[in-house]
Amino acid sequence: MSSTALKGCTGAALAEALLRPRSVALVGVSDDIAKTAARPLRFLRRAGYGGAVYSVNPTRATVQGEPAFASLSALPERPDHAFILTGTDAAIAALEECGRLGVPVATILAGGFSEAGEAGVEREKRLAEIGRSYGVRVLGPSSIGVVNVQERLVLTANAAFAEPDLPDGGVFVASHSGSLIGAMLSRGKARGVGFAGLVSVGGEVDLSVGEICEATLDDPKIGGYLLFLESMRNADALRRFALAAAERGKPVAAYKLGRSAEAAELAVSHTGALAGEDDVADTFLRDCGIARVESFDGLLEIMPLLNRMPVTTLRQPAVGVVTTTGGGAAMAIDQLAVRGVRVAAPSPDTVRRLAEVGIVAGEGRLVDLTLAGTRYDVMKAALGVMQTAPEFDLVLATVGSSARFQPDLAVAPVIDSAREHDKPLAAFIVPEAPEALLRLSAAGVPCFRAPESGADVIAAAFNRRLPRPELATPPLPVPPDAGRTIDEAEAYRLFARVGVPHAPVAVLTVGEPVPELPFAYPVVAKVLHPDIAHKTDVGGVALNIADAGALSAAMAAIRDRVEAARPGVGVRRILVQPMTRGVGEVLVGLRRDPQVGPVVMLAAGGVLTEIYRDRALRLAPVDRATALEMIGEVKALQALAGYRGRAAGDLGAVADALVAVSRLALLDDVTVLEAEINPLMVMADGQGAAAVDALVRLTTADAPAQSQEDDTETRSGRNR
What we know:
By secondary structure, this protein is α/β, with parallel strands linked by helices.
């Protein structure tokens, strides 16, 4: 066995074997055309696939009128791609035979693996072991197959591919769900979407969405990618593909299922609760430059707009709306507003220019042409003015009933205007008008059947960010409840390593005399214990302590309250800090997601953080420019920018703290699972910011920064 075989094919070689094989073997193909396992042979023959097709069935001499072979070993040549259509246990045996023969790629239809409990997990491990040991690349399990429309390779058991005249085009689809590639095909065909290929990825025991798509990137026939995701497994490969696609100018859009709250419920910090699975997935996709839609229709309709619209800058983009039907346009505007997309009114200069071509714009956001807009010259003139108006980043033409009965007349000005101007132009067709929509699609004009999907697509396109190529550390498969929390004093030392300033601290022992503090009264006293993350919940905080006597009493009271609230937890140490006041407070945190890696968060600070959910997230680490972007996304921080005469806070210091906290992801001697400053006290502009509370959770194996028993001395932290 060669070392090449052990490694398995990658890149262009993988794309050849997976999507352009010279020969395929159908292992377990059925003679009964009513069965699922009979479909791949029928589809390949009907499509006119030009490569060799070998039927493997040990119980029959012929299958569907063609010769059958008893095993893969009996074939006259080694196939490039084996589609294993057998049951679960037989599929494992067939994969091992593929490995022994050196078959480059095997697709497994069967289920009964990780989704089938402990025994299924063991079976899936066996698949992975076979793939690694022999170098055979495995697609699946639970993959319904692959289709390369341009090569007439219809290697799938999905019933939807009985569809005649498969639509040929430049869109490549990768889906965790097998049934969805059939839905994409049929719905896409009705919309004029043409496909280069469609792959059902299944369980990703080996080949993942990212690696498959990455292998196709240099195919000139592929112009963009649509992904249907059920999880963020193999996020590293997905990110690598997305960055490479952006470099080549090939847009990527995704629809992701799954909005689990389990991870949030198990998180120790506010950051973990606010950065749940779906929030992290959304951040990951956007930081990779992937447009995320919320609807299946949106996924099918988004590619033409992505092909025409570059990634926007920090300025909030604006949409201009031209219509022949006020009600239809109002629906579109309403859906855009729900998604936070700004619909702008024409500027005075644009109103003047519209008047020069005989169009009265009115005073609202909507340019309603009424029935006059059904005339080619009126709609064409209006679109020409709107597309050259600097206040709009995109123009949406809303077309009424004429689109159904006069499709040529209704959409011709939209098509011609889209060709003449660079500014993106899209169309929402209010009635059921399939011919008009097909004409728009054929011309490459973004078009929508419903206001909801149209607004979804526009918002997703605007919400893309330029991909960030810098990486932190790879994802770490740590269960959400794993690891250990360190106490606040240890946490400050860890934050200080990356450059986060904190208020001065003194660590005192309950029952011992209060020493002279290195800072003035009044002070705050807090329980110091690694098992108590949220101190106020157990009565572990006392504020505005005026002198040493009051501090001694407060320490004893904290001990009594905490031990009553948490039986079995002994309280010995108290952390003391000066009462620190600023002009505002924020939360800065980091969470290491087990699938996508570390994510940094900025939010409104305080105990009500989780209620308001006013936050911004990015993959870590972040630079200062990205930190400033995040500050601009948190609504509560507008008050710290000098809103309505209020004292301005030092937002530059907040940005610096964000950058510093994100660097926790880069430490090589400890692995931070969660870290949070809540609050980071923001001083007046130019006076900095300081952490006045800190929470850190490390992997269990990481040693504390310093022994708790030795940490009884009074000390001062650094202050900015």
